[in-house]
Amino acid sequence: MANSDNYDVAIIGAGLAGTAIARHISGSNARIIVIDAGNDVGQGASSATSGIWHTGFDTLPSSPLSMLVKRGYLMLQEYAFRANIPIEKTGSIAVAWGDDEIAMLTEMERRAHLNGFTNARLLTQQEVLDIEYALGPNVVAGLEIPDEGLVCSWTTALAFATQARNNDVDFWFGVRVAAAQRRPDLLWRLTMNSGEEIVAKYVVNAAGVFCDDVDAMFGHDDFTIVPTVGTYLTFDKLSRPLFSHIITPVLGAVGRASISPTIYGNTSIGPVLRASASKTDSEVTPDAITQLVEFGEFAAPRLLDFEVTSMHAGSVPISSKNEMHVQEHSAQRYICVGALGSKGLTTCMAIAEEVSRHLTAMGFQARRPLASTIPVMPNIGEHFVRPYQRQEFAQSAAGYGDIVCFCERVTRAEIEDALASAIPPNDVAGIMRRTRATMGRCQGADCSARVRDMLSAPR
Q1: Side-chain-facing half-sphere of 142: CA atoms under 13 Å
Q2: Most CB contacts within 10 A, which of 8, 102, 246, 304?
Q3: Residue 8: helix, strand or coil by DSSP?
Q4: pLDDT one-digit tens code per residue, 97-147
């Protein structure tokens, strides 16, 4: 909630971009608030990402996007190691499924080398199948990019928010900015849908799929977000050994999807994209399922021998201009960050760095810098040591030997730690994003009642 009615900086949106910006500019006695219509950080598009740690190898060399992705890649790598965020360099292979796609593979290799990824190499059909035996015979050729990988988007947003909160940033959930008005003293009055108001000297719009709506409140019509939904299928953990690399389509390929190991030990296929009339649409449609299954039969038939653990869909912030939007309006002391698309997870820290520079140029001064310690987050990655695997934890009396979620091996102590954290969860989905409880084979049929009891217990 808002602990004051007067702030130096108001950030609209608590997704990956908003929390990264809050973390980057915190650590002083500047008064900062993050506002989000949801009840937690990292929701919306930030929660529905593919979890791919992009290198930017395929971006146009020397373009603004290329610079952001390459800078963000390195920043996120360093931060993830220090904050204990699950991150894994698996490498990826862009696959041509037809002869007409080989020319694009060659262009992608050219871009990769110009972007500094000289270890990218073209593969023949047999070389692809030697590396990824579970792919079907329709493979024609491939391009290996060894530096691509996976990262946990949930823990990333939570780490940013935790560090910001430890630096006295306020978080106000469950309210939506309904209006923005410039006062005679040039401060912004932000009115919530609840009727409550705050005043801020600087405003950063990182409202995800709603960033164009917020942008319009500040008098701008530079772009629109095209409501788009991406759908994924997640397969049982027994399928994880099938693939060691992320398998992606070539640029511009129609009717293709990615096949990827996940940081949580599963395998996923998706997304297939569809247009929608709603920015909050998260429906998994029969048509989307059919498209994913048909592509799976075409590309990796062995994958379909395994059970589907879950299906999910989420909004993708795609701009009508098909590009990222990072725009500062100096005279208004207002910055808009939107349409980050599939590379938002990788670029968020570089974008935060750029936003900080814009704020400084506008006159924002972070007074009396304070110590800013990077938090060490609980590990929820499958290929790292989990609490139940640590003998000193399991033998303690603190609840690390008491399994609540048997599918994902989540202990009572992990859930209790999440509930007592700087940014605690407010519902079962929030506990899932912090611990993996309820996201396994039974999808919470066994453990959700106990999780709800822990959530509702006095604390």
Answers
A1: 26
A2: 246
A3: strand
A4: 999 999 999 999 999 999 999 999 999 999 999 999 999 999 999 999 999
Q: Residues with Cβ < 8 Å from 399, sequence gap 6 or more?
A: 411, 412, 413, 416
63 has a pLDDT exceeding 80: yes
* Contact of 243 with 306, CB cutoff 8 Å: no
Concatenating the DSSP letter of every residue in 291-355 gives HHHHHHHHH-GGGGGSPEEEEEEEE--EETTSS-EEEEEGGGTEEEEE--GGGHHHHHHHHHHHH
CA-to-CA distance for 254 and 136, rounded, in angstroms? Answer: 18
Pairwise CA distance, residues 44 & 130, whole Å: 38
320 against 111, higher pLDDT: 111
Instruction: Report CA torsion sign: 314, 320, 323, 327.
Output: negative
Query: Can you name the residues that pair with 145 across neighbouring β-strands?
Result: 92
**Tokens (6 digits) for 138:** 């329709």
pTM of the complete model = 0.96
In the predicted structure, residue 375 carries a pLDDT above the cut 80: yes
Q: What is the identity of the amino acid at 449?
A: A
110 Cβ contact list (under 8 Å, min separation 6): none
- Share the mean pLDDT of the chain: 94
| Joined tokens for residue 194 | 């609840």
